Amino acid sequence: MVDAIFNGSEPEVNDTETYENGKKIVPSYLCDPVAVDKTNYKEALIDSGYYKETELQ
Questions:
Q1: CA separation (Å) from 26 to 6, 7, 13, 19, 22?
Q2: CA–CA distance from 35 to each of 44, 45, 53 (Å)?
Q3: What is the mean pLDDT, run by run of 10 residues, along the chain of 57 residues?
């Protein structure tokens, strides 16, 4: 979202109803939470490209 705003384009949003700040509804991008533990950390953190394996050691 920051890159889109910085580059002058519209950020992707997937929620335009939930967040009311008292003056307007704030468009948002809601992420699905993922619980990460030793059984799925590789898929969730490394295979997704979020981290490199060396960064977690």
A1: 18, 20, 10, 5, 10
A2: 9, 11, 18
A3: 94 95 95 95 95 92
- Distances 57 to 15, 22, 48, 52, 54 between C-alpha atoms, Å: 36, 44, 17, 10, 5
- Which of 51, 22, 23, 25 is CA-nearest to residue 13? 25
In a 10 Å sphere around its CB, with 0-12 CB exposed, 13-18 middle and 19+ buried, how is residue 11 labelled? middle
DSSP 22: S
For residue 37, how far is the Cα from the chain centroid?
Answer: 19
